[in-house]
Design goal:
- It is built from four helices and 15 strands.
- Strands 3, 4, 5, 6, 7, 10, 11, 12, 13 and 15 form a ten-stranded mixed beta sheet that branches. It has a five-stranded antiparallel beta sheet with strand order 2-1-8-9-14, with no helix packed on it.
- With 220 residues, the chain is mostly beta strands.
- The N terminus is likely disordered.
Amino acid sequence: MEDHAICNLFTVRKSAAEVAAHFCVTLPPTQFNAPEEVYPGYPGMVVREQDGERVLQSMTWGWPVRLKTMKPQSKPKPVNNIADLKKPFWIGAARKPEFRCLIPLTHFAEAEGPKGAKTRTWFSLRDRAVFAWAGLWRDSAEWGPVFSGAMTDCNEAIRPVHDRMPVLLHQDEYGTWLRGSFEDIIGFQDRCFPDDLIVMERTTEAWNKSKPAKVAGALL
């Protein structure tokens, strides 16, 4: 279930006001506690619909889950990636538009290199200052509102680094993800995102650089 390499870091290098403008948010943004770099178990910006209007708010990245192997006193693990929307853990929320969300981001990172010396390789979309990762959200007893992002098979632009990638949406697809049928959103997870839109930037940054704490997300 765990995969320490699958999209455990993304950035939003835009203000809440800029993100709200891109996503046509009509309700005023709530108070934000979302840093520029987002890790599993920490806050990030999320766009969802409420009473037919889009709202931007801060939520914790990762649905809390307790694994069978965990001790009773252990804290829940944040499940930050959705491997398959049809799995029982996700399908109830996926079928209901009110639990779908858009995850704003400007870049997402994958770890690349030998164990113990992995570096950050960043991906963004060509000519797009901000874009959306398709996600689900819910209210949790443990951490309040939480979100997780859907994953899919990689395209050729991502393949040199990883065989999986986030389910990315074009701007004219935002409404379909938020309000479309279950079959519509499964279609997004099944498709291959265009290679020519992906920009890759390899860096010498240590993978764990400036990480606030050792956090390992989980995949379901």
